[in-house]
Amino acid sequence: MFEEYNPINEKIFRVIDNDGKVINKKWMPEISNERLIKAYKDMLFARTADLQTVSYQRQGRIYTYPPNYGQEAISGATAMVMRNEDWLVPAFREMGAYLAKGATLKELFLVFMGHEDGNVFKNANNMLPTSVPIASQLLHAAGIGYEINYNKKEQVVYAFVGDGGTSEGDFHEALNFAGVWKAPVIFIVQNNQYGISTPFKMQTMSKGIAIKSIAYGIKGIQVDGNDIFAMYQAVKNASEQALAGNGPVLIEAVTYRKGAHTTSDDPTKYRTKEEEEAWDCTDPLKRLKAYLISKKLWSQKEEDQLVEEYKLEVDRQFEEAENYPAYKLEDVFKYMYDEMPEDLKKQQNEYENFMKWKEARK
Amino acid sequence: MFEEYNPINEKIFRVIDNDGKVINKKWMPEISNERLIKAYKDMLFARTADLQTVSYQRQGRIYTYPPNYGQEAISGATAMVMRNEDWLVPAFREMGAYLAKGATLKELFLVFMGHEDGNVFKNANNMLPTSVPIASQLLHAAGIGYEINYNKKEQVVYAFVGDGGTSEGDFHEALNFAGVWKAPVIFIVQNNQYGISTPFKMQTMSKGIAIKSIAYGIKGIQVDGNDIFAMYQAVKNASEQALAGNGPVLIEAVTYRKGAHTTSDDPTKYRTKEEEEAWDCTDPLKRLKAYLISKKLWSQKEEDQLVEEYKLEVDRQFEEAENYPAYKLEDVFKYMYDEMPEDLKKQQNEYENFMKWKEARK
Amino acid sequence: MKVMNMVNAVNDALDIKLAEDRNVIVYGEDVGVEGGVFRVTEGLQLKYGVERVFDSPLAESAIVGTAVGMAAAGLRPVVEMQFSGFAYPALNQIISHVSRLHNRSRGRFNMSMVIRMPYGGGINALEHHSESMEAIYGHIPGLKVVIPSTPHDAKGLLISAIESNDPVIFMEPKRIYRAIKQEVAEEKFTVPIGKAKVISTGTDVTVVAYGALVREVQKAMQMAKEAGISVELIDLRTIYPIDKETIAASVKKTGRIITVAEGPTSFGIGAEIAAIISEEAFLHLEAPPKRVTGFDTIVPLPKGEHFYMISPEKIFYEIERTVKY
Amino acid sequence: MKVMNMVNAVNDALDIKLAEDRNVIVYGEDVGVEGGVFRVTEGLQLKYGVERVFDSPLAESAIVGTAVGMAAAGLRPVVEMQFSGFAYPALNQIISHVSRLHNRSRGRFNMSMVIRMPYGGGINALEHHSESMEAIYGHIPGLKVVIPSTPHDAKGLLISAIESNDPVIFMEPKRIYRAIKQEVAEEKFTVPIGKAKVISTGTDVTVVAYGALVREVQKAMQMAKEAGISVELIDLRTIYPIDKETIAASVKKTGRIITVAEGPTSFGIGAEIAAIISEEAFLHLEAPPKRVTGFDTIVPLPKGEHFYMISPEKIFYEIERTVKY
Ligand SMILES: Cc1ncc(C[n+]2csc(CCOP(=O)(O)OP(=O)(O)O)c2C)c(N)n1
Ligand SMILES: Cc1ncc(C[n+]2csc(CCOP(=O)(O)OP(=O)(O)O)c2C)c(N)n1
Ligand SMILES: [Mg+2]
Ligand SMILES: [Mg+2]
Question: Does B333 touch chain D (CB under 8 A)?
């Protein structure tokens, strides 16, 4: 597969077309109906949660939020391959991957409401919290990959980054180190065509991102990121490569950020309605849904009902997050060190004195 | 040429063999006998100066020095193409390029003796001083390239870096920016097989460095860096590309660092005599000399005589550097700012008071 | 005169210099079409073209490193770091070249560039979007570090910065980007780098602040006034070189000094000012120089940020304690 | 006991921890086959294999960034920056992750790693090979910053650093890598992080120093003794968290304090110590806290370095002035 779709040949890997019809039988993966339906449901849940989160933000109940609207198949496919023992090293725009790893919406909401406690992801095994400084997390993935090899573990690291992130030096260094170390890392670039307002064509003159794998002597493939079958096949193959000791793989998932960069962004400033509409027909949910319906595995009625359930579930978790215990002064200090310096304790005490004074003044 | 030697095909560009015989007529450049002899003389001068500098260091007359022994053809070829109006953005191991740009040995010596004044390179038009932090200078080259385009100048930037330097994030960012800006920058990587003790094969899993050009959508070529004809042809073509507005070119000059990394390094710790000998027959001076002698353009006698002259000249410049006026306190402060803060003046004054006190104590 | 907030004022300064000097160019992430995530560069690309105001790829080391090359070649780049918390990938270029190439080349190359960056907390942001690490820049020899507290100063200081042949780190208190409006002259004017400003005179204690906290100190001064305490407020405006004379002169009068700043306490500006005052006005000190600064912690996420951010009440509390010392 | 210089002592500490804990791994540029450019890791690759002691590609951000991942996965990487002047490309990883991942994850991930780097001047080196920017690390919340001044302390502190669950910046004064020899215990021992050491007691003035300058102060103390001045010398050993108690206790006795350090003056350690003393021992101060530190300049190349480097005479000169104040 990596030979057939060697990125030097500039051929994008695709299995179904925009109407959900299989156009590449050879590479149509075997996925049980059950699993496939679950994948669709997961994507639907992510989309529902995503849209709802944007509306919470509009209501002023959370701060900035980066929607993953339109990119759900990438997480969806990763979720089908990623195992409990594998690592997830997220960027920030792959909600489905977070959830698949065991993070909860409540925890994510907590972070977007401005509480670090959300980052604990208690039930998510082997997952780093969100990394805000673009591309810096890819090095962590390479380091984890080293540990996996060192301890001869059977694990894979799934590391996410955006198209803009590929311009950072850390992207280069991470892929290079992972290559040298033959680290079992799957670098998944969500090429959603924009880094905030900057279109992908202004990030680099290279012919896509997958082709950059050549610079590191590693495998790479450009995939239609809105085609869940293709994405699944690519991630699956990549993880087998990695587990077989063949080192890292770079997957470019070509997609489109249907929403704004974040809730504080206004895309009409830098892109056209026409462009948005042109991408609309590639929507990952539409395509999978068309496929499922054609196979009689899904119906609009089921969907409508499910979405209602999901909305309630999202609300429920949101409210849980809203009712999370208040932030305490000690939460500012407690986790700075494993062994807290005296001086930090003193700073906390001094602030407590101020709070007492303030209380007394009332 | 860049198509024929597209680095994806892993074909190294070479014009003469190790005995100086032309093996690639198609690409044998036209160079006048006069110019060719001058190139050889320049390389001979660089080698003479290089060896002598190492011996000055042994005598304790200068501090650390990074020899360019064995890599002279790369600078020699660049010197033939680089014009007065072009820019040179050096790393540190391309003495011939420095000299070609108008820097003097005396100035270089002054730096290695530990005096910033050497870095002025008074008669070198458009040249940055040595950049010690590996690969960081490549971004400066890209920025200069932007200025050239911005002001529609007819200039080219020649930027040097080593094989080790290609692992740094700045290498990636520089090539990417230069690509996006179509900046007229020739990135010359001296792949001398080592970054201090680290062999090239441990820097990256990619098949050479030229191939990394693909990641930036720019032209690249792998050249026998010890073959002055090939190097000249590559640099010449690259500069024409750049002048024609086609953007940057990455040239990988495959060579061998015959000397130590610096005078404080001992290569026997990490490489074998066999390896050194194997590379010996690719020596750039030997090969050009064999060619010149075969064409009756050169003789050992001429060479012996010239080397004696060169030695004297090197000594002369070295002594000039040794007799350079002593470092003054104000030299520490004077150039920190264009407009010096009061406080720095005060620091200088206070130190003068201390010096007076010290003087008085004697 | 025209009513401007700080966003307008910075935009105006850029506009004036872009119009006046073809060597000035402006770039960074999303500063072109979008006009910057804070809209500071809005309209400039349209007015001056994509060659003079443009989006760069996403790479801070490259943004600053290419500016080094441009400055060496004679341009006057004004680059933006989208947030000060994302300037760290550029620190190698800043420490190793921006601050040094002039000295290294014995004055042959000017590093005539400005690195703009919004900084500071109080905007309910994600991690890395709220920090105040100006002390790091203050410690790097070869830089000038400027922070305005009003639209007027922002305009005048930025014009000075762009005209300076020395590299300037220009930090913009994003919290008050739109919060303060002021009449600002429409024509070109400069505010000198390296000069602090006595905002109000007083006799009991000197308070040094800058950026968004000047306003918080002013609120605290209301409380102090009610408590019968007379505060002299100095807006530092330049972090390096610090205007020692103005601070020392004030302390010689008041005998007491408090530094109010958002960055971490240890090795921060409060320490520097304590040292300066010890050196310049030791015998006048009636109380220890006080640091009212951030904790030595990461700035908490929004739910906890109020503990970290310095409130007028906290400032007043410390004023009172210092005066009673 | 065995006679060791600091290179031997650091090597010994690494050796002990590598032997004892399979999670400890050592990497960086040229640390493997070559044993490091200062030979600090010599012999370790041979002894522990290329999987535990190895050369990395040339990229500092990656060296530190991968260590973040390794630490998250449970290893205890000890990485080397070849010179502290080349650590700047790693500052983003250090500021954004090394110092933060523990806090960000509410303690779920320990950043149990050590970043070793030789620092400081006095070895006649090229540019970038002589700097002392420890104050920058001191200002970054979440780090511990350690600097030994003797082989004994180097060994004990490095073992503590490797065993610490918090990230430690371990700066080695390269100028005295081989200059000081000492009997050091061969078995494992630790020196606690965060505790300064009173090297000699005195009554007239407290001098705080660390790293290579401790020895220079000791030379100055000879001159001071001849001049009848009694100096209390404190070796700081840890830059953050600073041992305020020990310094304050000393100043309460002597009433005078001088900080001797090589880094730039402004926003440096001398400022921090002046502030600490103002806060902790204000009423005991009989003279202003003095900073005997580097100029606010780049460290000059060797021909000019003697102006910058702090000599025993300079220290004595300042001691005398402070005592006479
Ligand atoms: C080092 C760094 N620089 C700048 C930013 C501000 N920023 C946040 S997201 C973003 C764009 C990222 O684009 P891309 O990598 O394509 O990811 P996407 O947002 O499209 O998912 C920028 C510039 C940052 N977070 N980190
Ligand atoms: C950022 C940085 N890291 C480390 C060093 C120390 N150092 C100096 S030269 C060198 C190796 C460079 O190798 P290469 O790029 O191949 O150039 P060469 O020395 O072979 O010419 C290293 C690691 C440095 N100067 N800068
Ligand atoms: Mg994107
Ligand atoms: Mg090399």
Answer: yes
Q: CATH number of D197-323: 3.40.718.10, 3.90.650.10, 3.30.70.2120, 3.40.50.920?
A: 3.40.50.920
Q: Which residues, other chains included, contact B293 with Cβ-Cβ below 8 Å and sequence gap of 6+?
A: B20, B299, B300
Q: How far apart are the first and last CA of chain A?
A: 71
- Residues C270-292: tens digit of each pLDDT: 999 999 999 999 999 999 999 99
Q: Dump the DSSP string for C174-196.
A: GGGTTT--EEE-SS-----TT--
Give the closest residue (by CA) to ligand 2 atom 7. B134
**What is the ipTM for the molecules in this complex?**
0.98
Q: Where are the alpha helices (DSSP H) in A87-154?
A: 95-101, 105-112, 137-150
Per-residue pLDDT tens digits for C66-117: 999 999 999 999 999 999 999 999 999 999 999 999 999 999 999 999 999 9
Determine whether the interchain pair C128/A132 forms a contact, defined as Cβ–Cβ distance below 8 Å.
Answer: yes
Q: How far apart are CA C279 and CA B350, in angstroms?
A: 13
Q: How do residues A261-278 score in pLDDT, each as one tens digit?
A: 998 899 999 999 999 999
Q: What does the domain layout of chain D look like in residue ranges?
A: 2-184, 197-323
Q: Do A271 and A280 touch, CB atoms closer than 8 A?
A: no
Residue type, B287: R
DSSP per-residue string spanning D263-301 = EESTTSHHHHHHHHHHHHHGGG-SS--EEEEE-SSPPPP
Q: Is pLDDT above 90 for A362?
A: no
* C255: CB partners within 8 A, 6+ apart: C205, C284, C285, C286, C287
Report yes or no on whether pTM surpasses 0.90.
yes
CA of B206 to the centre of ligand 3 (A): 26
* Other beta carbons within 10 Å of A266: 10
Given the candidates 2.60.120.920, 3.40.50.970, 3.40.50.720, 3.30.1330.60, the CATH classification of the domain at C2-184 is: 3.40.50.970
Helices A228-243 & A72-81, crossing angle to 10 degrees?
Answer: 40
Domain A7-322 of CATH type 3.40.50.970: yes
D2-184 and D197-323: same fold?
yes
For B179-238, write each residue's pLDDT tens digit: 999 999 999 999 999 999 999 999 999 999 999 999 999 999 999 999 999 999 999 999
What distance in Å separates residue B118's CA from the closest CA in chain C? 8
Tell me which residues have their CB closer than 6 angstroms to ligand 1: A 93, 132-134, 162-165, 190, 192, 194-196, 257, 261; C 29, 58, 60, 82, 86, 89
| Strands in C142-256 per DSSP E | 144-146, 168-173, 182-184, 197-200, 205-209, 231-235, 238-240
Which residue is associated with the tokens 């970290």? C308
Instruction: For residue A7, give both structure tokens.
Output: 């990125």
Cβ-contact C194, C243 below 8 angstroms = yes
pLDDT (0 to 100) of residue C277: 97
Residues with CB in 5 Å of ion ligand 4: B 162-164, 192, 194-195
Residue B172 annotated as catalytic: no
Q: Write down the pLDDT at residue B362.
A: 81
